[in-house]
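Here is a typical protein record:
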Amino acid sequence: MTNNNDHPFLRGMSEPATFMSVPYSSSVTESKAAILGIPFDCGQHPTRIGARGGPRAIRAQSSLVRRYQPPFADFDPLEDLGVVDMGDVAVTSAKLKDAMQLIEAAMSHIFEQDVVPITFGGDGAVTLPQLRATQSKYPDLCAVHLDAHADASLGNGPGFDERYNTATTFTRAAEEQLVDTPRSYHIGARGTLPLQGTYKHAQGLGYQLITTDVMLERGIPNVAEEVHQTIGNRPVYLCFDMDFFDPSCAPGVCTPTWGGPTAREGLALLRWLSGLNIVAVDINTVSPDHDVGGMTAFLAGTVAMECATLIAMKKRQDAQSDKSVAATQTS
């Protein structure tokens, strides 16, 4: 085997750009969490196509994110979890059937190693195959979906004539019984929609739906407490569509919708969800072609870091609880 140290040119080479410079690796055997890019979008939106570039943009802007968050979490969650960046699933945008199979297979591979995937989309259509893989690992799965849209419509509005698209992800998830809908939440819904009765349809599928107005009227701690009480320690698929935020702080998304939470409010909600048993994280709809100065991708990188922190804190809590139980049993 040739030693790269013998070649000055090779010594100057670097690995592909990764999220926050974590190691690039296709192996997750030594990790508790892994980054996976899913550069896919359906290409169905009449004017706003570009989420396929989301993973690249989030990684690029993640150089602005730092690893310590005192006093909330003055430790390095990426080191705690041994996070690696696996690169991107080799999908081709607009080839939805093939992409779904590849995405589900990639997620299943990660779950086989008992690792928590943190994925970067892509548009909202990438969520369904991820849910399929996650439910196969965790049959009693619940979803917490933070989004300006419930993505649980009939899907027959303008531009959405197919059964599988960004608007029908959680409709199909309910039909396929991928999540426990009465214990699953859509939080942040607001704004104009192409179809009448969309919220009633989501609620008719069994989902708990909390609009942005209701969330802000009740207060973030109150809403988070309800989520904790309803879900308990059940496994949670955390789906974060970046249009959950107001476009004043996240303009580069597929469907910007005014009247949303600020960056401060959105990140605060994540921290109030601390303690949930998060088994998968899905951050999607960053559209760099529509971003301003990379601010949406930077915010998405911050969301990813917050989610990694929640996962690491939960694992620390569980480990401490196991030690306490073991100590009690031996005393």
The first helix runs from residue 8 to 11. The domain at 31-316 is CATH 3.40.800.10 (Arginase; Chain A). The chain has one domain: 31-316. The chain has a mean pLDDT of 91.
